[in-house]
Design a protein that fits this description.
There is one protein chain. By secondary structure, the chain is α+β, with helices and mostly antiparallel strands. The protein folds into two domains: 18-126, Peroxidase, domain 1; 130-218, no CATH class. It is 56% helix and 11% strand. It has a four-stranded mixed sheet with strand order 2-1-3-4. Helix 2 (25-42) crosses helix 3 (46-61). Mean pLDDT is 78; it is low at 1-10, 12-22 and 186-201.
Length: 219
Amino acid sequence: MPSTVDGRSEMNQVKLHDTVLDTGAEQLGKVYARALVGAADAAGVADEVIGQLDRYVDELLKEHPPLALALASPRISEEEKGRILDRLIGESCHPVLVRFLKIMAKRGRLGYAPAVRDSARQLQDEILGRVTAEVRTALPLTDDLRQEVLQRIGASTARQVRLVEVVDPGLVGGMVIRLGDTIFDGSISNRIQKLSRRVRAGFSRELVEKFASFAGDTA
């Protein structure tokens, strides 16, 4: 079984044995993620490539289920999947990612792209010593609030922070922060209470103030 991309060593000659790959999506994702991150890091484009893989998974596969099914289907040939990938991302994504996905197509593993993305994100964060914080808010974060959250979390963890933003109107003006296995849930919502319609324009400023109070209590 080839262990390089088109005869190259770009995938760091990672051997992807079926006995390893068939142990489950999570394990398979980790194996392929190591190959992708290694190749992208060697080219100095790791964050760029992983960001593009994010968009491939979230904007193409998740939003177009028939496409995801087609790319995962064993009934569609490797050649046809390659042509589909070229049409979809050939010009918009880095060649490292395009070649990598074609390797997955050749080995019948394109259906595991989401697992690869998750593992690649985790691996890159570990390499950079970066923590991931999921922040749920009732309204989208403004630039000021985003920077405030990043600063507060970065100061409390003494590490670089990657923010994952989720808008959840059900929080009614609140904020929930997930940092690893720790969830600061309800605290912000309870303190802010329900924001009235007349002050929604001032949501960001008030939430910054409440978040500052919250961060001071939990630091």
